[in-house]
Design a protein that fits this description.
Elements lengths: L21 H12 L4 H4 L4 H8 L9 H9 L14 E2 L11 E2 H15 L8 H36 L5 H18 L7 E3 L13 H14 L4 E3 H6 L8 H19 L12 H25 L4
Parallel strand pairs: 1-2
Antiparallel strand pairs: 3-4
Length: 300
Protein backbone atom coordinates (compact mmCIF):
# COMPACT_ATOMS: atom_id res chain seq x y z
CA UNK A 1 0.00 0.00 0.00
CA UNK A 2 1.32 3.43 -0.94
CA UNK A 3 1.92 5.99 1.77
CA UNK A 4 -0.53 8.86 1.92
CA UNK A 5 0.86 12.23 0.87
CA UNK A 6 0.86 14.79 3.62
CA UNK A 7 1.17 18.54 3.43
CA UNK A 8 3.91 19.85 5.70
CA UNK A 9 2.39 22.16 8.31
CA UNK A 10 5.37 22.61 10.63
CA UNK A 11 8.85 21.30 11.33
CA UNK A 12 7.46 18.37 13.34
CA UNK A 13 5.40 17.10 10.41
CA UNK A 14 8.00 16.32 7.79
CA UNK A 15 6.86 13.35 5.69
CA UNK A 16 9.66 10.94 4.87
CA UNK A 17 10.58 10.25 1.27
CA UNK A 18 9.25 6.89 0.17
CA UNK A 19 11.45 4.21 -1.34
CA UNK A 20 10.69 3.07 -4.89
CA UNK A 21 10.03 -0.40 -6.25
CA UNK A 22 10.88 -1.45 -9.82
CA UNK A 23 7.32 -0.90 -11.07
CA UNK A 24 7.28 2.69 -9.82
CA UNK A 25 10.70 3.35 -11.34
CA UNK A 26 9.51 1.95 -14.67
CA UNK A 27 6.56 4.36 -14.65
CA UNK A 28 8.87 7.33 -14.13
CA UNK A 29 11.33 6.06 -16.75
CA UNK A 30 8.57 5.78 -19.35
CA UNK A 31 7.74 9.43 -18.86
CA UNK A 32 11.35 10.63 -18.95
CA UNK A 33 12.88 8.37 -21.60
CA UNK A 34 11.28 9.99 -24.65
CA UNK A 35 11.83 13.56 -23.55
CA UNK A 36 15.02 14.43 -25.38
CA UNK A 37 14.32 17.98 -26.54
CA UNK A 38 13.04 21.20 -25.06
CA UNK A 39 9.93 20.91 -27.22
CA UNK A 40 9.05 17.45 -25.93
CA UNK A 41 9.85 18.16 -22.31
CA UNK A 42 6.83 20.46 -22.23
CA UNK A 43 4.36 17.86 -23.46
CA UNK A 44 3.88 15.68 -20.36
CA UNK A 45 2.05 16.24 -17.09
CA UNK A 46 4.80 17.77 -14.94
CA UNK A 47 2.74 17.84 -11.75
CA UNK A 48 2.01 14.14 -12.13
CA UNK A 49 5.73 13.39 -12.37
CA UNK A 50 6.51 15.51 -9.31
CA UNK A 51 3.72 13.76 -7.37
CA UNK A 52 5.26 10.38 -8.23
CA UNK A 53 8.63 11.43 -6.82
CA UNK A 54 8.06 13.60 -3.73
CA UNK A 55 6.24 12.47 -0.55
CA UNK A 56 3.54 15.15 -0.43
CA UNK A 57 1.18 17.17 -2.62
CA UNK A 58 1.93 20.86 -2.96
CA UNK A 59 -0.88 23.40 -2.67
CA UNK A 60 0.47 25.01 -5.82
CA UNK A 61 -1.75 24.04 -8.76
CA UNK A 62 -0.17 26.34 -11.34
CA UNK A 63 0.81 24.33 -14.42
CA UNK A 64 3.58 26.80 -15.24
CA UNK A 65 5.26 26.23 -11.86
CA UNK A 66 5.77 22.52 -12.58
CA UNK A 67 6.88 23.18 -16.15
CA UNK A 68 9.51 25.65 -14.95
CA UNK A 69 11.01 23.05 -12.61
CA UNK A 70 11.98 20.96 -15.62
CA UNK A 71 12.60 23.38 -18.44
CA UNK A 72 15.27 25.56 -16.79
CA UNK A 73 18.37 25.23 -19.00
CA UNK A 74 17.06 21.90 -20.29
CA UNK A 75 18.38 22.56 -23.80
CA UNK A 76 21.89 22.84 -22.30
CA UNK A 77 21.47 19.43 -20.64
CA UNK A 78 21.84 20.96 -17.21
CA UNK A 79 19.44 21.40 -14.33
CA UNK A 80 19.62 24.81 -12.69
CA UNK A 81 16.14 25.73 -11.48
CA UNK A 82 15.30 29.29 -10.61
CA UNK A 83 15.59 29.81 -6.84
CA UNK A 84 12.02 31.11 -6.69
CA UNK A 85 10.81 27.59 -7.58
CA UNK A 86 12.12 25.98 -4.38
CA UNK A 87 12.90 26.74 -0.75
CA UNK A 88 16.64 27.43 -0.43
CA UNK A 89 16.59 27.27 3.38
CA UNK A 90 18.12 23.91 4.33
CA UNK A 91 16.66 24.00 7.85
CA UNK A 92 13.04 24.78 6.89
CA UNK A 93 10.92 22.54 4.66
CA UNK A 94 7.39 23.60 5.51
CA UNK A 95 6.41 25.85 2.58
CA UNK A 96 3.32 24.23 1.07
CA UNK A 97 3.49 26.06 -2.25
CA UNK A 98 7.01 25.30 -3.44
CA UNK A 99 9.41 22.37 -3.33
CA UNK A 100 11.84 21.97 -0.47
CA UNK A 101 15.56 21.88 -1.21
CA UNK A 102 15.52 18.10 -0.61
CA UNK A 103 12.53 17.40 -2.84
CA UNK A 104 14.19 19.29 -5.67
CA UNK A 105 17.43 17.37 -5.03
CA UNK A 106 15.60 14.04 -5.57
CA UNK A 107 13.90 15.34 -8.73
CA UNK A 108 17.31 16.49 -10.00
CA UNK A 109 18.75 13.01 -9.44
CA UNK A 110 15.90 11.39 -11.37
CA UNK A 111 16.20 13.97 -14.13
CA UNK A 112 19.95 13.55 -14.59
CA UNK A 113 19.88 9.75 -14.42
CA UNK A 114 16.76 9.00 -16.44
CA UNK A 115 16.30 11.88 -18.84
CA UNK A 116 19.69 12.96 -20.07
CA UNK A 117 21.45 11.00 -22.77
CA UNK A 118 23.92 8.33 -21.71
CA UNK A 119 25.66 5.54 -23.57
CA UNK A 120 25.04 3.19 -20.65
CA UNK A 121 21.79 1.27 -20.37
CA UNK A 122 19.60 1.77 -17.31
CA UNK A 123 19.32 -1.39 -15.20
CA UNK A 124 16.28 -1.21 -12.96
CA UNK A 125 17.78 -3.29 -10.14
CA UNK A 126 20.84 -1.02 -10.00
CA UNK A 127 18.67 2.10 -10.18
CA UNK A 128 16.43 0.80 -7.40
CA UNK A 129 19.42 0.21 -5.09
CA UNK A 130 21.00 3.58 -5.88
CA UNK A 131 17.80 5.64 -5.68
CA UNK A 132 16.62 4.00 -2.45
CA UNK A 133 19.98 4.49 -0.74
CA UNK A 134 19.81 8.12 -1.84
CA UNK A 135 16.26 8.34 -0.43
CA UNK A 136 17.53 7.01 2.92
CA UNK A 137 20.20 9.72 2.89
CA UNK A 138 17.52 12.39 2.31
CA UNK A 139 15.40 10.95 5.12
CA UNK A 140 18.39 11.11 7.47
CA UNK A 141 18.76 14.75 6.44
CA UNK A 142 15.13 15.43 7.36
CA UNK A 143 15.65 13.75 10.74
CA UNK A 144 18.69 15.96 11.26
CA UNK A 145 16.50 19.02 10.65
CA UNK A 146 14.08 17.86 13.37
CA UNK A 147 17.03 17.29 15.71
CA UNK A 148 18.42 20.73 14.83
CA UNK A 149 15.12 22.43 15.70
CA UNK A 150 14.89 20.56 19.02
CA UNK A 151 18.45 21.66 19.80
CA UNK A 152 17.63 25.23 18.79
CA UNK A 153 14.52 25.24 20.98
CA UNK A 154 16.49 23.84 23.94
CA UNK A 155 19.17 26.53 23.68
CA UNK A 156 16.47 29.19 23.39
CA UNK A 157 14.87 27.91 26.62
CA UNK A 158 18.23 27.95 28.42
CA UNK A 159 18.88 31.54 27.34
CA UNK A 160 15.42 32.58 28.46
CA UNK A 161 15.81 32.91 32.22
CA UNK A 162 12.04 32.62 32.73
CA UNK A 163 11.89 28.93 31.73
CA UNK A 164 11.52 26.41 34.55
CA UNK A 165 14.40 23.96 35.08
CA UNK A 166 11.98 21.00 34.84
CA UNK A 167 10.86 22.17 31.41
CA UNK A 168 14.48 22.47 30.26
CA UNK A 169 15.28 18.99 31.63
CA UNK A 170 12.36 17.53 29.66
CA UNK A 171 13.73 19.12 26.48
CA UNK A 172 17.21 17.71 27.23
CA UNK A 173 15.78 14.20 27.75
CA UNK A 174 13.78 14.49 24.52
CA UNK A 175 16.88 15.56 22.58
CA UNK A 176 18.95 12.65 23.95
CA UNK A 177 16.14 10.18 23.20
CA UNK A 178 15.87 11.52 19.64
CA UNK A 179 19.64 11.09 19.25
CA UNK A 180 19.51 7.46 20.47
CA UNK A 181 16.50 6.49 18.37
CA UNK A 182 17.60 8.13 15.13
CA UNK A 183 21.17 6.83 15.37
CA UNK A 184 19.89 3.34 16.37
CA UNK A 185 21.90 3.25 19.61
CA UNK A 186 21.17 1.01 22.60
CA UNK A 187 22.09 1.55 26.24
CA UNK A 188 25.13 -0.77 25.96
CA UNK A 189 26.44 0.77 22.75
CA UNK A 190 29.64 2.60 22.16
CA UNK A 191 29.76 4.90 19.19
CA UNK A 192 32.68 5.91 17.06
CA UNK A 193 32.94 9.27 15.34
CA UNK A 194 34.97 8.92 12.17
CA UNK A 195 36.91 12.11 11.56
CA UNK A 196 37.24 11.38 7.82
CA UNK A 197 33.93 13.19 7.34
CA UNK A 198 35.76 16.36 8.42
CA UNK A 199 38.52 15.96 5.83
CA UNK A 200 39.94 19.37 4.94
CA UNK A 201 40.57 19.88 1.25
CA UNK A 202 43.56 22.12 0.60
CA UNK A 203 41.39 24.03 -1.88
CA UNK A 204 38.75 24.83 0.76
CA UNK A 205 38.22 28.49 1.50
CA UNK A 206 39.01 30.02 4.88
CA UNK A 207 35.39 29.89 6.15
CA UNK A 208 35.01 26.22 5.22
CA UNK A 209 38.28 25.31 6.91
CA UNK A 210 37.21 27.13 10.07
CA UNK A 211 33.95 25.15 10.22
CA UNK A 212 35.71 21.80 9.71
CA UNK A 213 38.37 22.63 12.29
CA UNK A 214 35.63 23.51 14.78
CA UNK A 215 34.03 20.09 14.29
CA UNK A 216 37.33 18.19 14.43
CA UNK A 217 38.29 19.78 17.76
CA UNK A 218 35.04 18.57 19.31
CA UNK A 219 35.53 14.91 18.41
CA UNK A 220 39.27 14.27 18.34
CA UNK A 221 39.69 14.36 22.11
CA UNK A 222 37.72 11.12 22.51
CA UNK A 223 36.45 9.36 19.41
CA UNK A 224 34.94 6.32 21.15
CA UNK A 225 32.19 7.32 23.57
CA UNK A 226 30.05 5.21 25.91
CA UNK A 227 26.29 5.62 25.95
CA UNK A 228 26.36 6.31 29.69
CA UNK A 229 28.29 9.50 28.87
CA UNK A 230 25.39 10.67 26.71
CA UNK A 231 22.90 9.94 29.49
CA UNK A 232 25.07 11.82 31.99
CA UNK A 233 24.89 15.05 29.96
CA UNK A 234 21.52 15.94 31.48
CA UNK A 235 23.03 15.75 34.98
CA UNK A 236 25.48 18.53 34.15
CA UNK A 237 22.71 21.11 33.76
CA UNK A 238 22.52 23.59 35.41
CA UNK A 239 25.43 22.92 37.81
CA UNK A 240 28.13 22.74 35.12
CA UNK A 241 26.99 24.43 31.94
CA UNK A 242 30.42 24.19 30.32
CA UNK A 243 30.46 20.37 30.49
CA UNK A 244 26.80 20.32 29.47
CA UNK A 245 27.46 22.26 26.27
CA UNK A 246 30.51 20.11 25.49
CA UNK A 247 28.15 17.13 25.64
CA UNK A 248 25.60 18.87 23.41
CA UNK A 249 28.31 19.55 20.84
CA UNK A 250 29.41 15.91 20.92
CA UNK A 251 25.98 14.44 20.29
CA UNK A 252 25.24 17.07 17.63
CA UNK A 253 28.40 16.24 15.70
CA UNK A 254 27.73 12.50 16.11
CA UNK A 255 24.25 12.99 14.70
CA UNK A 256 25.79 14.87 11.81
CA UNK A 257 28.16 11.97 11.01
CA UNK A 258 25.12 9.65 11.02
CA UNK A 259 23.63 11.67 8.15
CA UNK A 260 26.84 11.62 6.15
CA UNK A 261 27.60 7.91 6.31
CA UNK A 262 29.12 6.41 3.19
CA UNK A 263 26.90 6.45 0.11
CA UNK A 264 28.18 3.12 -1.26
CA UNK A 265 25.70 2.62 -4.10
CA UNK A 266 26.46 5.90 -5.86
CA UNK A 267 28.54 3.97 -8.43
CA UNK A 268 25.38 2.18 -9.60
CA UNK A 269 24.12 5.38 -11.20
CA UNK A 270 25.05 5.21 -14.89
CA UNK A 271 25.64 8.93 -15.29
CA UNK A 272 29.15 10.06 -14.29
CA UNK A 273 28.10 13.75 -14.20
CA UNK A 274 25.33 12.73 -11.78
CA UNK A 275 27.82 11.04 -9.44
CA UNK A 276 29.93 14.21 -9.40
CA UNK A 277 26.81 16.31 -8.90
CA UNK A 278 25.73 14.27 -5.84
CA UNK A 279 29.20 14.33 -4.30
CA UNK A 280 29.47 18.10 -4.77
CA UNK A 281 26.01 18.77 -3.37
CA UNK A 282 26.57 16.48 -0.37
CA UNK A 283 29.85 18.27 0.32
CA UNK A 284 28.08 21.64 0.23
CA UNK A 285 25.34 20.32 2.53
CA UNK A 286 27.96 19.01 4.96
CA UNK A 287 29.51 22.44 5.41
CA UNK A 288 26.14 24.20 5.71
CA UNK A 289 24.92 21.73 8.36
CA UNK A 290 28.12 22.13 10.38
CA UNK A 291 27.94 25.92 10.00
CA UNK A 292 24.35 25.78 11.30
CA UNK A 293 25.49 23.83 14.36
CA UNK A 294 28.51 26.07 14.93
CA UNK A 295 26.34 29.21 14.83
CA UNK A 296 23.81 27.63 17.19
CA UNK A 297 26.10 26.17 19.87
CA UNK A 298 28.06 28.40 22.30
CA UNK A 299 31.79 28.76 21.63
CA UNK A 300 32.86 28.17 25.23
Amino acid sequence: MKKSKNVIENSNEIPEFKTFNTEELEEILKIFSKRVSLKKILTFDHKKVVDKIIPRSLNNKEKEYYENIFKENYSKRTFKPDSKNFNEDLFEVKNNNILSYYELFLIEVFFKECCLKSKKKIYLNDLELAINEFVNYLNNSLKFIKFYHKLKNLIKKIKNKQNEEDDIQESIKDLILTFKNDCNLNEEDQFFIGTSVFFINIHSNKDTMAVLEWARKIVTDKQITEMNYIDSIKNEFPKNKQLFFIGLKKISITYFTHVFKNFSHIELFRSDPLKSFIRKKRSDLKIKYLKGLMDLLPNN
